[in-house]
Amino acid sequence: MEITKNIASEARRTEWSLALLGGLKHRGGFAARQRTVHVAAVGGAKLDHTEAVLPVDGTHLVKVALVGGAELAYPEGASAEVDAFSVFGGVDLTVPAGTAVEVSGFSLLGGRSQGVVGEPGGAVVKVRSYSLVGGVKVRQAG
């Protein structure tokens, strides 16, 4: 009986999006899941968390696409992890001032821009991006 409860609880914490053609888009006052997984042949993920209700432990996005990137925005104090793999597409990330951003991964053709400085002990957004074409662009909101 306990195993069933744990599986049901895990299912509610994860949002799955599988598509041949099509992306995942969330904005406004939605309840973000702890983990979001988006897999598509063609289609990216566009998640604006600035008005969302976020889990206490932060969010984790896993995005896999042949063509399609990730466009993400986070509110003040949000912690998140992003794992992205794309053949064509990158990660475009917007964070508020004071958020630390850690970028790692590999990009054959594409750069990494990171012009934000975090506060000690503040929110951290970790981005791991693996892409043949496309990089990581980090911007401060405002």
> What is the distance, rounded to the nearest whole angstrom, between the alpha carbons of the first and last residues?
49 Å
Q: Level of helix content?
A: under 10%
Q: Sheet with the most strands?
A: 6 strands, parallel
Would you identify the regions where 5 or more consecutive residues have pLDDT less than 50? 1-9
Q: List the total number of helices.
A: 1
| Rg over alpha carbons | 15 Å
Number of DSSP E strands: 12
Give the topology string: H per helix, E per strand. HEEEEEEEEEEEE
Structural class: mainly beta
The strand line-up of the biggest sheet is 1-3-5-7-11-9
pLDDT average, as an integer? 86
The coarse overall form would be globular
Strand content: over 45%
Describe what this molecule looks like in 3D.
By secondary structure, the protein is mainly beta. Helix content is 8%, strand content 55%. It contains 1 helix and 12 strands. The protein has one helix at residues 2-13, and strands at 14-21, 24-26, 35-42, 45-48, 59-67, 70-73, 80-88, 91-95, 100-109, 112-114, 124-133, 136-140. The strands form 2 sheets. Strands 1-3-5-7-11-9 form a 6-stranded parallel β-sheet. The protein has a 6-stranded parallel β-sheet with strand order 2-4-6-8-12-10, with no helix packed on it. The longest helix has 12 residues, at 2-13. The radius of gyration is 15 Å and the shape is globular. 29% of the residues are buried. Mean pLDDT is 86; it is low at 1-9.
